[in-house]
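Below is our example:

___
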Amino acid sequence: MTPPAAPDPGARDAIAAGRTALGIELGSTRIKACLVDADDPSRVLAVGSHEWENAYVDRRWTYAIDDVWTGLAAAYADLAADARQQHGVTPSTIGSFGVSAMMHGYLAFDADGGLLVPFRTWRNTDTGEAARELTELLGVNIPLRWSIAHLHQAVLSAEPHVPDIRFVTTLAGYVHWRLTGRRVLGVGDASGMFPIDASTAGYDAELVARYDGLAAGRIPPLLDLLPEVLVAGDAAGELTAEGAALLDPTGALQPGALACPPEGDAGTGMVATASVAPRTGNVSAGTSIFAMVVLERPLGAVHEELDVVTTPAGDPVAMVHCNNGASELAAFAGLFSRFAEASGRPADPDAVFETLLREALEGDADAGGVLAYNHLAGEPIAGLSEGRPLTVRTPGSRFTLANVMRAQVNGVFATLALGMRVLADEGVAVDRLLAHGGVFRTAGVAQRLLAGALDAPVSVAATASEGGAWGIAVLAAFSRARSGGDDSGLDAYLGDRVFRSVVFDTAEPDPADVAGFASYVDRYRDGLAVERAAVTALPDASAPATEGATP
């Protein structure tokens, strides 16, 4: 047995003295905590996590609010235990902290701070009527999952709680509020609530006025309901005694840590991949998959496939968001893990996943005629009201394990590629595209196939492995540096202080992969008729509809 590594005195001293930054992220399946050295945020000192799951209750996706707090405390306790095991010290004070969470969705509160209806997550897409009306009114694409779409749908439906609404926020904004007492939001997360004016890094005043005219008499003025918008580097309050007790019920953690603006998972993904400057972009693959590309200029037209959001510093970003990511691929890996177990030769699930991914590289570039649809939920970009996972082939398809797995990986990227083609048609250029998410942990496989799917170089950095929890920890360290007099912009801070020594592994697009994926996605688009027929022919009472999807 290998003995544990000796404690690192430098790390122990940093933790004991509170020269640290804490990042907390509430993702769709895990709550993660990440503690970094505030003077060198690329240095991760301790991590912790807690698994949780959404529930489908009364035809809406939700998480129980109590689960937020039990999960946060569990993730922090896991981090504290990791710090003790690695460095022989329990954190009692931290220099700064930040909260990140799934963007969009709907948390509405009354004048006393009481939650009016259960948390409605980004997966809820019963907002088609509101999204259509708002897109027409505002002249920008308002996706089904945006907070303003949820709010306006509640108004249109005259839901009983509407007259009592006095505050609306996102999950990150809610947690930050409870930890600090401040009703604020980072501009990146705020841009998924309501459109942002890039010149002011605040809600677009003209569009706010239009909406107030539409909703007059039914709810208070919009700016009275939404969180105050802050940008990266701003101070966003301090951890209160009540907040410290929520994070650490043992009482070891002391209040007073500086808070950075709470951000969405898209913004922290940009930070975690150093993709905050124009002509840079990133792809995040998990339960959903989305691409973010920082724009040099406004888009020429409104596109249903594209959201316009911002970086944590307030620069405009085109976002291609797909509801379905790597979950179906993971389900296939689980199937083969069970086969290994049933055959009497159980294998580590991570090893099975890696084996299947590497097998995909042995497949034909077009997956041999096999098609895979990863749609567990509806997919607006593909015009699907609901999802039915399918693997489809013709009798002449080359049905091999390699081609099945190649089709599954291609299926993860196919809808994303359809949206990225819209960006390409707009003339949007990308010099660097970075990827993060569990599917990219197997070196050189998903990364290479994504490069072929998007016909662009794709890079992966080792530091992105901690994802959004690390990204928000970096933003917390940035706010601490700015409070200490550092006047660097976010891009310069990332380049000089965080990614200076990081090595990026880059996969260039292979012409054979590009041609093969182009053939695959053309067939994939034609085969969407089969997917639509499956939704009609195979009703699933447990599957929520995605209203507003169009072919």
Observations:
- Residues 327-429+437-458+510-537 form one domain.
- The chain is about 40% helix and 20% strand.
- Confidence is low (pLDDT under 50) at residues 1-5, 544-551.
